[in-house]
Batch of 3 targets.
Target 1
Amino acid sequence: MGRGKGGLRLWVQAGWTALTNGYAAGFLGGKIYTGPLKNLCVPGLSCYSCPGALGACPIGALQAVLGSRGFRFSFYVLGFLMMVGALLGRFVCGWLCPFGLVQDLLHKIPLGKKRKTLPGEKWLRRLRYLVLLVFVILLPLYAVDFIGQGQPWFCKYICPAGTLTAGLPLVSQNAALQEAVGWLFGWKNLVLLLLVLLSVLLWRPFCRYLCPLGAVYGLFNPIAFRRMQVKTENCTSCGACQRACKLDIPVWKTPNSPDCVRCGDCKKSCPHKALL
Amino acid sequence: MIEICRKNLPAILLLLLGGAFFALGILRAENFTVFTKAVNLCLECIGIG
């Protein structure tokens, strides 16, 4: 039963990734989709310059609107994030994010000693809020050029999803882009490489430390329709849920922690069926 | 039904507010800014510049 649900999550992740990043002509021709679906955001972190992408990344979209000359606030993207957050919270991260799927698969590689946390874990997990505030909101808003246009700082300097799903496939197929490659491409690939290596040892390092989208959705975890409850009459505080949690969350105490991506491992592990 | 609504009141309010924001964003044509960015190759995203 438990194994079945883990398998179900993987299938949902793969199916959703295929649905939202399934523009095969883009991969074959080294181009991106330019149809009307790109008006819409997808719930997970999914670069709109990925050749397969059929929708827009909400974090990229937020920076695009904030960094544009016409707007200083994005009702469109914030509204979208509020709706998705209120419905699902970080369930999106666990089930509907393509880069989450990549990290999940990397963590299945049987190499090295798997770890649950890093030294300074508590502070590292707060980094994602700093990334959200500085790279996604403040810099695109205020670090503008002479015509008042900002840059997508998170996409440019941090986002490993863009490097993996857009940068590498497009640069590998386009001679002009290959000639334009410089230090920034090297830097972004270094960030990606570090996260790939870390993902083998530690479950979802990008989601827990750096993802600004996870930072937003995590705020909705306590109130979202898709939230968890502890049945106090059943719970014995045995800690089985925390031992099963790959993010080391004490679920019996904080079932709606902003770190939780709703993978469901805690529910499966609870011997008393205390998690609903 | 009432019990479900009561338990999920903050989520319902945020869902409605989010829907209103989303509609307002469309009225302000913010989606056109998103679309324009998304259908053009984002050089920053791919690490070119």
Target 2
Amino acid sequence: MSFSQLLADTLALLADNAHPFYRSLATKLDGRIVVFEIDINPVVLRFENGAHFIDDEVPLSIDLALSTDRATIVELVDGDALLIDLVINDKLKLTGAPDSLAIFHEAMLIYVNALTREKAAPAMYQKFTGH
Amino acid sequence: MSRTDSDSDSRYANVNAKASVLTSGSIVSKVSNSSEKVFSNAVRSNYVRASAAATAKEWFHFLIFSDEAHILINFSLMNQNARGLAQQTLRLTILINQGDGWQGEVIELPGPEVVPGELRLGNQQSYFDYRDGYYQVRFQGSQGIINLDLVPAVDGVFANTVSLDHSAHLKWIGVPRLVANGQISWQGRQFTISQAAAYHDHNWGEFLWGRDFGWVWAIIVPDRTQRYAAVYTRLTDCAAHTTLSEALMVWQDGTYLCTFRDDEVQTQIDFVDTMNNPFRIPGVMKLAVAGAHADIPLVNIQATNRIYCADISIRCVSLAQIGVPSDGDILSVSVLNESIGEAEFRLASDTQTAVQASVAFVEQVQVIRSL
């Protein structure tokens, strides 16, 4: 499973099962464009009017870029590495204005914490890791 | 709080003076009756509840202390709502410390067989099952294989209902000493458990993780040559500023001896060491929970009643964390800090003074909010 598919499936899960948290996430990121570059392939995430959109066309103006590889994402989610260590060691690069970085970090915490409460989330993640 | 030997000695003298007004015969009779009641209640009451209440929680907890490893195994049953439907979820938590660090995982067991009234919980491959006077604990998964038999070696105790906050409560049964035998294979490591000391408790109640409560649970487990086991419980508010209830239970030679309660117990918990980036499960909790440090507790307990005086000092040396998403607040996680350490245990009465150095385990609950 691609990162794009994992993002799409998990956000759809939250929109369906955990709407208050999804709404909180959508409010936090409303109008912002985040580009994930995972193993080079770009995934563009934007929220508008309380809904999310995912595509692979990178617009001229973006708010934040996260660049890493699949193995690093697995390290992060499995707890084998801390986010701060990955950033310091340039294994995960975050680029954006400070307020965008802060908002993205808060949104990521909402996203991850919401998924830890969803029974279907581990199976989606396992498809991504291939284990 | 610092204590001196002279402080302790004067306290023992007071206990001895109080105890001396009772005849030795009446002391023995009182303890014996209490013990039988505790034992029969504990045996009768230890079965799967599997309450259908939305906030019901129930878990069966095993700690094994062998020369090769300290092991925590927890079968936890809870009700979760998914798409408006209540579902019973059974999670197995395994923590293993072999002296060079922690390993472990939180595993959701598919297809759990939950039969209220039975003392068995799990699925075909992974379960615990009490039969013929001992617990079989089995796990089979990609992480490894666990094959343990645990034989209770002391009377159990059925504790009264304890309140966690305004509407929440917890009941529990504890067996502070079992003898464990078996084999464990975990992520490439294999070891044999032979005549190891172990602890078991069963907890159930209705509450929401993340509400205004916390606890400290400390267990002193004797080895084969030692006489005393002890369990300390302290229920507090979330910030641990207010103690709701406190108790220290002591067993001697396999028999329940006495309980010190509330005003009879004084506890001091200090944090003298900090652990950077402690082992935390599930692994995703390192991403979900802010903070990469944990304080390692140093626990001192003094307890005095009419007959006995107990002093316990527990110095924890290593800690692992289990993260449990809070039920209400999405950005908060209840973190169970599981510490192993060494305890010095001293018990005195008018007729005897016992001193014992044992292995100890301390569990503390704290709520961490990420934003």
Target 3
Amino acid sequence: MRRNSSNTSKEIASRIILTVLFTIFVVIWIFPLVWVFNGALKSADEWATNPNSFFPSMGYTFENFKTLFVGADQTTAYNYSIDKQPVAQWVLNSLIVSVSHTALYLVISSLAAYAFTFLEFKGRDTLFYILIATMTIPGIVLTTPQFVNIVKMGLSLNLLSIILPGLGGIGGIFLMRQFFKGIPKSLVESASIDGASKFRTFLTVVLPLAKPVLFVQGMFSFMGVWNDFQWAQIVLGYGSKETWTLQLGLTYLVDLNRGTQGAQGVALAASVISMIPMLLIYIVASNHIIEGVAMTGVKE
Amino acid sequence: MYKVKSNGIHNKEKVSHYFKKYGIALLFLIPFFTFFVIFFIYPLINGITMSFYHYNMVDPSDTYFVGFKNYFDFLFVKEKPIIIEGEPIYNVDGTIMTEKNPSFYGFWYGLLYTVLYCLVIVPVSIILPFFLALGIKKKPYGFKIFRSLIYLPSIFAVSSTGAAFAFLFQNGENGFINHLFGINYQWFNNRFSAWFVIFLLCLYNIGGNFVIIAAGLENVNKSLYEAAEVDGSTTWDKIRYVTIPGIKYQLIICTFNTIIGYMNVYGQMRVLTGGGPADPQHSERPGLTHSIVYVIQDKLTGAGKFSTAGSISAMCIILGIIIGLITTVQLIVTRDKKGGDKYEKKFIQYFQGNSL
């Protein structure tokens, strides 16, 4: 009895120590992110005269966001010199590519996953395993010919060059098929006995049940396209600034403002804008995301 | 007449039979396969083909077969003649004037820097999440919040988290870190400090490994720990003989995913250092923080991109083969002897690995 109670108090003590250690770690860990949000709310004059203040002596302001979207406020000393960039266009472009890619990919991959799970046809599983095997081909092999492809199709400097290529991806089909396999076959079969066509079964029986996996795949697709920098730089980077996505513009702003006195806040504000959609998704669905990632390492 | 008609009906039945068997599935699969063929199969074949050509993507008349020249060029040719308007330039003694071949140095040094960097970042990207996961398993108060916050940076674009580190480590007294430590250090002008900042930014990717390892720890058989307890094992013994074997599979997956991810590293350098600083002694070599993908990306976004697609593709294919070999080793190591759906389980990681 005595041993037990000392064990529990020891356990509580170790949990408290652990909690303190984790708190210290996490504060350092997310400090750069907090610093970005904090810095974005410091005015250009504050950045120029007092760049290292964490709590701005001139108070928090949305001036940098205004500079990004409306143009520099010409009444302050340092803001004046900051050039206007088509940030609203970048945000719009990023939204267009992320939303339309995600929507199209969900339609395409759920249709294919349905066929690979519920429709009987010869060679179905072989075909699927061949598709899965193609996922081992490293993506870097495709970049150059994909760019050539885009140029030859006349899609370079066009947002379609970001939206379309990923639609041939197998990852989402794989994830959805895994989920679909968990749907009782009897449900799908009884619908077809009722005389519902395959397509109606897909729409009215399978899709409503598949909402969780559609949600997870939708998030992964959206985040992938929204955060993409490398491919966008190849297909859009050499065009005029108006064709860019937000990540291209943001990197440009970071390069541009590294040496400009007072302009750090503007680049950090652009960084905040790029983080906000991800942050919103994470606040709503962090558990889904973490579970989805954890699932990839589970050996069954 | 009757016979023909009967055949017709028979054919019609046969057609409708085949339609039922394949047609409906075909309708479901057509949208996917259209994109799969246009944006995967075709470029895959075309990429291999064009690597044997001098390939000009906007001027077809400038495209001709060159065999293995593209490969040979960046793999072996250290010096190449200077050609201006199709004519070589001659030295005074009649020999052809040569220059150092930037493709050769770009490929080999890009690869060297990438591999050296992997040797540092990969072990850290496994060990740090491993200990974090061990801590989380002990359930500190608010462990769910800690878990979410540790994973949090992984969801952001490298350009947005990179912006933070670019300004935190800004050169000069106005940089936050310099100010904090009362120094005036040029972080991005020295190769080691530049790599160090890149390394810190890359740590923001450990979320995935952390989550996978933490999930693996939850499934380690608890009775093994109790047995170890009875035997009087130390904490280290338990980690060594119970924990690590228990999450071997997760550790292997994370290790390979991380290696493959960092063989493709690019964005961190692009945002923080722009590939610099330049090599002071060897101007022919790429910037000291150029990864191999950075070298390729430079070519794909540089001035000559439209006329040199063949040689860029060749370089991509060699890198692809190197990564493919790593993948093959992984497949052998994680080979599942149970059979059945083994392919599915093996390949699930690629879904995650490709989005790292």
